[in-house]
Amino acid sequence: MWLVFALMTVSTWGLYGIFLHTGQVHMGDPEYGRYKAFIFVGIAYFLTAILAPLMILWLNGAAWTCTVKGMGWSLLAGAVGAIGAFCVLLAFGARGSPTVVMSIIFAGAPIVNAVVAMVMHPPSHGLKSVPWPFYVGILLAAAGGMLVTRFKPPGTAGPPTPSEPHATIDPRGEVGSRLADP
Question: What pTM was estimated for this model as a whole?
């Protein structure tokens, strides 16, 4: 079952970058659309990362105690995840295409994970006990990220700015609708 969940994560995280870029573009605000999109990412995180586990814990009658160390590491994990998600938007704002940005991230993140995991939880028999295909895998991940970035298909920068009605919120908090400038 763990493999099914891992592959579901591959699918959803593989969609994350292009969906986020599309949401940013469809905000109709070339200067600040990425920040507006990130607000909705936060709302989705609240719904998914807070309400869903609370419901599972409540339905299963779980104890509501947590250790300080567990809470600290979990908050740190959330912070680095949120910072990473925000940096994706900053990369898009600096003219990085979703194809290139996400390829670099998804090739580089497993390398960072492998190195940090070995530092935090060293192999019981030292680095000599790590099989050589592990190191080859790290090199292949780096090479794969480089190849996808260097040879991305032409015209994959993202969708054009839309001309469709979208919600607006004025300073008084009133919600309206207007047509985006073409």
Answer: 0.72
